[in-house]
Every structure is written in structure tokens, then in C-alpha cells.
Amino acid sequence: MASYQAPLRDMRFVLNEVFKAGEEWASMPGTTEVTPDLAEAILEEGARVTRAELFPLNQSGDAEGCHFAAGKVTTPKGFKEALRTLADGGWFGLGGNPEFDGQDLPKMLTVAFEEMLYATNASFALYPALNTGAALLLDHHATDAIKRTYLPRMYAGDWLGSMCLTEPHCGTDLGLIKTRAVPIDGDSGYAITGSKIWITGGEHDMVDNIVHLVLAKLPDAPAGTRGISLFLVPKRRVDASGELGEANGVVCGGLEHKMGIKGSATCVMHFEQAQGVLIGEPHQGLATMFTMMNYERLSIGIQGLGLGEVAYQSALDFARERLQSRAPQGAVAPDKPADPILVHPDVRRMALNVRAWNEGGRAFAAYVGSQLDRAKFHPDAEMRTDAEALVALLTPIAKAFLTDRGFDATVEAQQLYGGNGYCVEWGAEQYVRDARIAMIYEGTNGIQAMDLVGRKLYKNAGAHVARFAAVVREDLGSQAPVGLEDFHGACQRELARLEEVTAWLLDRAQQSPEELGAAAVDYLNLFGYVAYAWMWWKMARAAQAGLDASGAAGESFYRAKLAVGRHFLARMLPRSEALARQIEAGAEPLMALPEDAFYPRG
Amino acid sequence: MASYQAPLRDMRFVLNEVFKAGEEWASMPGTTEVTPDLAEAILEEGARVTRAELFPLNQSGDAEGCHFAAGKVTTPKGFKEALRTLADGGWFGLGGNPEFDGQDLPKMLTVAFEEMLYATNASFALYPALNTGAALLLDHHATDAIKRTYLPRMYAGDWLGSMCLTEPHCGTDLGLIKTRAVPIDGDSGYAITGSKIWITGGEHDMVDNIVHLVLAKLPDAPAGTRGISLFLVPKRRVDASGELGEANGVVCGGLEHKMGIKGSATCVMHFEQAQGVLIGEPHQGLATMFTMMNYERLSIGIQGLGLGEVAYQSALDFARERLQSRAPQGAVAPDKPADPILVHPDVRRMALNVRAWNEGGRAFAAYVGSQLDRAKFHPDAEMRTDAEALVALLTPIAKAFLTDRGFDATVEAQQLYGGNGYCVEWGAEQYVRDARIAMIYEGTNGIQAMDLVGRKLYKNAGAHVARFAAVVREDLGSQAPVGLEDFHGACQRELARLEEVTAWLLDRAQQSPEELGAAAVDYLNLFGYVAYAWMWWKMARAAQAGLDASGAAGESFYRAKLAVGRHFLARMLPRSEALARQIEAGAEPLMALPEDAFYPRG
Predict the structure, then answer these.
(1) Closest CA–CA distance from residue B242 to any residue of chain A (Å)
(2) Domain B161-283 adopts which CATH fold?
(3) Acyl-CoA dehydrogenase/oxidase N-terminal domain location, by residue (chains A, B) (predicted)?
């Protein structure tokens, strides 16, 4: 059966030993109050509350799903109560602005809690994830009056946010949207009319109001993405005193029937002369929305991580009990009819693959979180700018690589069960279905890759990548610590490979714009491998330090960390070389086939 | 929406141009009657009947599923009628023994029909697939009296076969089974008692009788897999004249709830003093069962292929209509609001990946089919033995590599839809769910890999692999035809890599039995890449010949074939190098972690 305890020891290791979070937080004025004790309390209570409230609703929520009738959406049994418990516990405003009752905690810490949310109940997790992103956007771009009205309620989970971008004819290409916003005479507001699809939490029964952030076009909007504006459109109108008023022209038209995340209400939303308020500047809606989208992209990456972790733990629980055949070296449990399957090298290979993805991803998510914190809290403007550049560069990788690997992890974990993995009762197949969406929504992983090679690489002529390489190289130092030569050498080698491929690609892209698109996904994956090789170097160094300092007490944890890292080096990292070769094959093989030859028939 | 037409042009290409099926069949006494015209008629009518009868039931069958009540299983609406139509059309006895009304057609031809079955309705396809395997087993191992009674009914689809191996505590390790067979006093039969799980088509409402092939232990059975015997246990007893008698002690205890193939009844079966007949020798049941299992393994490989093909065609249909953004070189459809997504290099990459898997797999399945035909029909005993060895070697690869790549294909095709791919109505997500099981059942792909490195490689000290290499090398010749140097060179290089890795592994395995298990899955995948590189060489050569001979008529087909092949060489085949490096990392990284360290908690 599904089994999960938040990996607190590993989270502490990442925070305290790999990234020295205590020192980091003490060094920035905005985070000095975040002591290691406070962080520990949040991790422990977060682990408790998600396990107690959300995990028991995961399989039942999948079986029941959301239901739609007469414009109303009913979430699965227990969701509403669990939401209330978490919201009342203060878990919805962790990173929020303290001026409006947020807790202003560092992202490096809250990513760990997000992982617990997704691991225990990915469908449920999406409601607070969207809400947090929406609140972040309002905090950045809304007027003080709006913030005062909305943010305390959103941090309290009394109202929840949603993000309304996609329309039936356009998902990726938002320049094509048809939703219109017309100024209302004698009012500062707008009347919004149009239909949106795939709106997570667009309508449901858990809170009194839903705060829709809606992309629409003003009457004078230029064509394409430069003509999009962003509006706050509440489900129920809010009067000047902040009290709930009458229903706004916002109607749910139905739910999608999906492969997974069935407890998440994915809505068709119709806006019919709904009253909205402009957020940010006219025609700058897409840029404004990116405040939320970048937040969600990291969050969705963590969906991959959380599902990979719960899939690992559940599969290992199965593996411990399941007896099949004998170890290749002879029986290890001669008193039993067969040995536990973990004696088999190939079962270990699968388990180690999953674990190495998870632990690499956990460190990487924390690293991106730490850079978000620097960008927000660091007193030195140059440090903030540097951190922002790294975040910009790494966000598409965090979204796509963590979700691709998270999906791989759930598939590999499912394989470990044999036939049981395909049967619903064990829960493994749900993790695969729930993880699959993370590669698609919030910008498909192909779109993330285009963002990486386009905006984050080509547009600045590789400056962000060069900065990343400098950071890694400084971290590596010139001399490998004794005993860690393999981690150090692998990271150096992979970084050099990335730099070579980057230079090649920048050069090639001058010749043809098709080269960027042709390389994009393989380049993102290559970058992901390099980033994880760096994370494994950092973790190996911290594990070695722990081993040197701990004596027998923590020994098994640190030795395991090094062993998992060496599995990564030996049996996963070699794939980067293939990616480099695939990239260097260039666009020509992709473009050679005429379009009509893609449809062979008869 | 889902879209499929059997890829007849490509099937003809594989049969007639790549493998010269007409010459092959004309050269063997048992197949001389199979003319190209007959083959063509079977392909065309097979394409028609599967598309008309099975494809419309695919999504409805998934939505409805099978239902269990009071010991009875109801299959989805339309399945029973479709089964009757196909059976009456003679489609269930295609490869059967002509002495008992089978049609004795070559496997190289029938694999194409199997692909159509799986592509149009994977759930449905399993009923005839199990039946054909069961009939094959009886034809090899049963007495003439039993064959006379059962085979004509099974070929006619009046009765269907099932395969009863797994028990709750053992799937892979069949030595642990507890089902018992006790001789019945004064009778040649046995009373079978025990429970089996995951029995595809174990009970359903489509036919009058179900022919269970059941593994059980005789009272004097030695422990382990050497103590298993095989019994024919009909759902309803059959009297001496072959007429249906009373119910046997065979009871369905329920259905599994599964991730996919929901139209396939996966049953818990209880045998309660059920009367059975021993098939084959006592205690040789597993060897006897392998006649069926080897058949099913190739068949399940084709499940991966069929689902990859229908996923490709459906995704391309979507891609043709979907307009998003502009081509990197500038608008190609300036009159439309955006360009069709196939202008984007990364969309092409996904489509070409899927197509290259499918076309490589189609050729490989035909090749294995051709060797099965030689093993059965060739007049020269040495040729038969040679072919048998190749079939033994390639069967685990056909099962595992085709299903792994089939799953990859369905996932990549789903990605091509963006968010629509996750919504049930489009059908793409069903293909992913239906393909996932193929990596698990019929021996997990890990077990296939163990079979490959154990029985098929190590046990004969690499003789089968050496034979395979000799066949490939002879086919390649020393000189590459002008214009095909890339295909020729890649195949030579990959074959050399496989030989090197094989020699390394045979040597390593002497030192520790763990090395085989550690290498198994990566070795199977490496072998798969090499086999596909060979298939692409063969296809490229045939395409070039077609191009030279055809003039303008077939030009676009052949040019497309070469382009897809070059995509395979440039952007997929590089992965083989990573696999080789991963294998050569050896068992140590997998075995380093102590068992208890796999369970990090708290």
C-alpha cells in the first residue's frame, strides 16, 4: 500500500549541511529571525499535518474525483475539512508578505513543505499552490487597497486564487486569446467576457470566494502577446469595505475528465461581463503573469519531486515484504521460501535510480529556493541581481527536469511492484498518472526548453550560463578533497561539456533559428544532468564532512548518501554524453522530412 | 480524437521489400501457397475488419470496463459481437495447425495482423492473443484426442484459452506456487485446487467455454520450478464426444481494478477440485508453458508497437489541425492566426522519435517472425536450429524493447497534444495507460533482461550472440553502398560495441553472479538499439533500392523512410554509448548500499 513519511533527515541534511541555511538566513536582514529551531519546527509540524490530513485522502480523492452539477463543483470527501485545518494552521501564508499577515519565510525552507504537500496529495496541493502564486502576483503588482482586501484572506485560505490563461484554441500561444476586457463607464473597472479552459480550482466548494487572475485583451490592444492585460476577477464581488457582495459574471461550464490529479477541479470557466480590476500596466499582462508563472513552475517541479519520493517509499515498502527467487550469491533468507526482492541487482538498480533522482531534485529545488531568497532578501543589490539571473536560468530546468525525472521515478517505482504496480489498490499507478501532468501544464516541458535556449541563453549570448559555470567552478575549487575525486572530476567534466555544447549552440543559432528549437529539449536535459552532478558533488562533500565529524551516530546516513551519489555517477550520468551528441546532430535531421510526409496512410 | 488506419504501405514495404517475403515463402515447402496476393488480401481485410469492428470499441471499452457480479464477468458493450465477427471471419486460426482447421500462415505475416489488433483495441486483442498461445501449446504438447476436441473450437473462437500461472504470493518465482493437482482414482484426470491471480480472460461472457492452462504441483513434486506440471482445465467439462458437459470446479473470484486495458478481464480464479488433464510430462510444466509464453512475449512486444502506431497517427492528426505560434524561419501559414505546430523543430523531434520507434519495431517484429517461420517450416534442419537459436535470443528483446519503446512512444505522442493529451476525450492518455502493462506482464522487462543475459547469453557462453553478429555482418557486407555509408557505418559500429560489451560481461560474470543481474536491463536495451540499427540499415537499403527503381511514383515514401532512419541515427542511437558505459560500471555501485539503508525514514 502507499506509504509516506516526510524525508526529514534528508531535508535537514540539504538545508543545514549542504546549504548551511542557518548561516545564510542569519546573514540577510529579512531572514535573521528564521533560526534553525524555527525551521525544524516547521518541517516537523509540516510533516505531521500533511501526513495526518492529506495523505489519507489521496487514493479516495482519486477514486471519487471532482463532480460537476448545475454550475457547482464538489471536491472529494474530506478535502474541504483538510483545507480548513491546513489554512487555520497558517500553512497557506508561509511565504507571504508580513504586512498582510504573511509569514515571509524563506523559499529554501518552504520548498520542503511544498514537497510534502505534493507527496501526500498532489491533487490537493494544487489548490494552495495556485493560491500562493496568485497572492505573490498581487503582492508584486496590485495596489495597496487590493492587497489589503485580498492578501489576508488568501493567506488565511478563506479565499483561494486561480490562474486563467488558456482558451480552447490556444494554450502555448497566448497571443491568440479572445477574452476581452471593456472599461466600464464611470468606474475604474472592466467588464471581462470570454471562455477559459484548464482552470485549476476555477470553481469548487471549499471556500467562499475564488480570486481569478485572468488574461484578456483591452479594446485598443495590439495583436499578439504584447496586447494582453491581466485582471483580477473575483467569483463574488467584493465591496469597498472588503465584504462579499453579489455573484460576479463567472460561471463554471464543466470539468475536464483527466488521466490523473482527479481531486483537482480542472474547470471550463465562462466570464460573462464579469467585473474585473486591471492588475499591473495595460498590455503588460503576460509579463505580470510571469511573476505567478515562475512561482508555479518551480512548484510544479516540486510536484515531480514529491511524487517521486512517495513512489519510492511505497515501492520500498513493497520490496521489503515481497519474496521472489534467491540472491545471485545464494540465499540470504534461507528460512523463508524466497529472498526479499531487494537482493536482486536489477531491483536495486531501479530503487537507486528513483532515489538518486529524488535526492538530486531535492537539493536542486533547495538551491533554486536559496537563490530566490537572495534575490528577495539580500542586502547587496548586485547579489540580488546575480541571484535573479540564476533563478531565471534555472527555473525552466527546475520545472522540466524535475517533472521529467519525477515521472521517470514514478514509472520505475511502479515497475518494482511487478503486476501489483498496475493494480489500483497499491497506489503506484496513481503516482504515474498524477506525475504525468506535471510535464505538460505550466508550459509544456518543450516550452520550458524553448524558454531556456531562447530567453535564458540566446538572448543574453550565454551570459547567464557563463555566470552559472563560474559559480559551479568556484564551488568546486581547483583541488578535489581526498576521497571525493570521482564526484569532483565528474562535475568538472560535465560542466566543461555543457560549456562546449553551449558555445556550439550559440554559434549554430546564428546560422539558423531552427537550431535553438532543435536543441532545446536535449539541451535542457543536459543542463539538468550537469546541475544534478553539481548537487551530488555538494551532497558528497557535505556527507564526507558529516562522516568525518559524526562518528558512528550518523554514519549510515552519510555512507548511504555517498553510495547513492556514486550510483548516479556510474549509472545515470553517462546519459549526458548521448545528449551532447544528439544536440550536435543539429536541426537538419529534424527538418528534412516534408510536412506531408509525416502522415503516411494506407 | 483517436485516429487509425493500418500502416499498410509500411507493412508491405517491410514484408516485400525489406524481407522479400515472396521469395522466402516460395522457398519453404510449408509456405509455398502463401503468395504475395494472398498476403496482400489478408493485410487489407485485416485492416478493414479491425478498424470497423474493434477501433470503435476502444474508448468505450475503456470507459465502461469489465464488470463482475455473482461469479460472472461482463465484457464491455460490443466486445462479444466483435469477437464473433472476427472469429467467423477466420481471424483466430491464422497460424493454427491445418490438420485441425488452422490456416498455417507464416508468422512474418500474422505479426502485421497482430499489430492491427493491438492498435485498434489492446484490451480486446488480449483475448485472441491468449487463445492463440494456448492453442499453440496444445498443438505442441497435447494428445491427438485433445487436439481434435479443442483446437478446432479454439481456432473458430467458439472456446477461448487462458493461461493460469501467477498466485498471490508469486508472480516471477513460479517455484513457489501452491496450487495442487491430485490424481483422480480410476480416471486419467486430476483434481486441481488452488487460486490464481491476474488471469487475462479467466472468465467472461463472450464464449461458451474457457480453456484454462494451469500450472500446479503433483503430490510427489520436487520443490521449486522443477516440480511444476501443466494441466488443461476447462471451465465446463467436455465429454468423450467433445460435447459441453456440466460446470467444472472453476470459479471467478473477482476482477482487478487496473490502470488500463480495462476492457480486458483480469480475473482472480479459484480452482476447487476442478477436473484437469495433464499436458506434457509431469514436472515439466514450466518448460511446456514456455511454448505459450514465448509466443505471448512476442505478441506483447507487438502490443507496444501497435499502441505506438495508433498513438502516432492520432497525435499527428492533432498536430495537423493545431495552430500555435510561428515557424522559427517565419510564418508558413500567414493567412492563419498561427502556424500548424509541426513547423516547430521540437514537435518534429517528438513525432520523429515516435515514428522511428514504430518503424524500427515493425521491421524487428517481422524479422523475429521470419525466424519463427524458418524454425517451423525450413526444410534444412540446420537452418531450423539456427533460426531457433536466434528466436530464443531475440524473444526477450522483442518483448522488452518493443514495450519499453512502445510506452515511450505513447508518452511522447501524448506530449505532442499539450494539455489535451491529459484529457480523456482525446484518447492519448489511454494509450499510455494501456501500453504501461506491456512492460510488466508476461515476465517483467527486468525478467526478460535476466533471461537474455542468463539463459540466452551466459549459459551458452555467448554463442547465440556470436551467431547473431555473424548474421548481421554477413548482411552488411564489407562495402557500404554509395549514399548509405551512414547507415552501414552506424550498424557496424554498434555491432562492434555490442560484441565488446558482451565479451566484457561474459568475463565479469565469471567473477560474480551479481554482474549479470546488474548489467541485464542496460544490456537488453543496448542490444535493442543495435538490433534497430540493423533494421534501419535493412530498411535504408530497401528504400534506396525502391528509390532507384521507382521513379517519381514511390519517391516520397522512400525519401521519408531514409529521413526517419537518419533521425534515428542522429538523435536516438547515441543512447547506446551511455548504456555501454553504464553496463561497464559493473555491479559494485548497485550492491554498495546495505539493505536497511534503502529505507531512510524520519
Answers:
(1) 36
(2) Butyryl-CoA Dehydrogenase, subunit A; domain 2 (2.40.110)
(3) 80-158
